[in-house]
Fold:
Amino acid sequence: MDQFRRRLASVDALPQLCLLAVFSGALTGLLMTAFRELIDVITLAFMPGGRSDDFESLAPVMRMALPLIAVTLIGVGLWRQPAAARKLGIGHVIERLTYHQGQMPLPNWLNQWWVGALTLIGGLSAGREGPAIHLGAGGSCWIGERLRLPHNSLRVLVGCGTAAGISASFNTPIAGVIFAMEVVMMEYTLTGFMPVILASATGAVVTQMIYGTMPAFTVPDTIEARLFDIPWIITMSLAIGLLAGGFIRLARLGPQMTRVPRWLRLLLAGSATAAVAFWYPQVQGIGYDTVGNILTRMPALDVLLVVAVGKLALTALTLACGVPVSIVGPILVSGAAVGALFGMAGLFLLPSLVHDPHLYAMLGMAAMMGAVLQAPLAAIMALIELTHNPDFILYGMLAVVVSGLTGRQVWHCRGFFISALFNQGLHPLQQPLTQALSRIAVPAVMERGVVRTRPRITRDQARALLDSRPVWLMIGRGEDKSPVALAASDLARLVLEDNRDPAAEGKGEDAIPGVSRTRKRTETGEVEEAAIEEIDLLAIPGQRLELASVDLQATLSEAFDRINEYGVDALYVQHTTAPMIHKVSGIITREAIENYYRYKR
Structure:
């Protein structure tokens, strides 16, 4: 097992990562299945027909009561918990990857189960993709932590859980891969791509075995795109870009809303949803059934307007009020409604150019997703996998780019999740140095030839230390002081010179700093130094490095940050073998890290 971990510390451990990716994808698929079944079982108690998203069949009073009950339970459940434990969903996963090497706290993961279920059961405008990604990332992190894997591998496993979560939600494995790399991990590497692809495929296989191969919603085979549609597609995409930017700006009002008491914010979120749901239950839940209706039989104009604007606004308002809902599902539904509205308007105003409103509904979903997330590749791949029609690629690319540019230039938005983290004072976009150093763990670069010793040793003890051919001597200085590293070559040089000529360094007790010798009286009566009796390793000539500690699982990025934090030039690498027992595995220097970045990355 130690050899397996050591191999994973390097940047090219693809076979090992691919093996772990299979377990990650399978576990994520099972977790997602359990989450969906949990929702279905609870909604059997009050939802006619047992369909968890059929809010239209409920009485208006019941539709109004559900959001208020949901925000009350969420408020009570999260009220006494620390602020850190209330962070959930995709944004939390991105933050943990950026600042904590993918380590997912258990309290947040447990909260995601019941909070995610309540937002969907309670009829808030929310999706299940955020919980799926958080649960998948947390489950994959659990695998890595149980195996005590290095953090560079843990980061890849979290990406695997993210991809498998999206894949299991939409039945779109390719879009899951692109989403994980583009939105969550924010980097493309071969080491990341191959395991993430395998995990995404495995997650899709698990859910297909249980729910079948149908995607989240059915797309008619008769939808056809023509070049004449391009001018109106561009017009629609401009409008969607403006709506997407407005959505992000409204959702970012969270810090300003903190001036309002928490209970009043929760009441506002629940009341707003309840008021709209009384007349238009289509704004509740994920809304995939509404997308199905749009793509098969076009709903009434007022329903489309409310879903297009109202659902988008309710989702943003709920987030701003502090309720952690997932946004991917709602923005897809709103995008479909906006697209359908433009398709109907184009059919009325420009019948010679526009002939199928359903085409605009599909393109509207991709355009809204691309603009809100600033993730064009993920949006395009989702469109292709949902439609099973490669003929839409050209039109989807055009719609996604136009809407994304519009939102970015007009509203100066950098993507929903990045903007949200910037709003919290965090900076999820890593610098090239940090990205490169995060891909490899400390064991791949550290020097393993280390022996621990006391500050003062005898000549025989020095020889015994050198017999193991160490590179560094780690010298302890007591409980209150950090240890020091001394190059073993400095001690070897001293011992070698002593073997050649015990009096080579001249007479006198202080001829060599830190060295005390035995004395003997010559025939003439003079006192002469003989062999070394004791060596003070903290005083003999040589270069000594102040040390701080770093965990064996840490990445080079973590090690580099720790070196800068403590102002030292080297770290001793340790891991826990038993409670309160730490073993030193090696030493890593600033020079070794810099050399890796220059020559081996």
Notes: Confidence is low (pLDDT under 50) at residues 504-510. Strands lie at 450-453, 456-458, 472-475, 484-487, 515-521, 527-536, 544-551, 570-578, 581-589. The chain has three domains: 1-214, 227-424, 442-499+530-599.
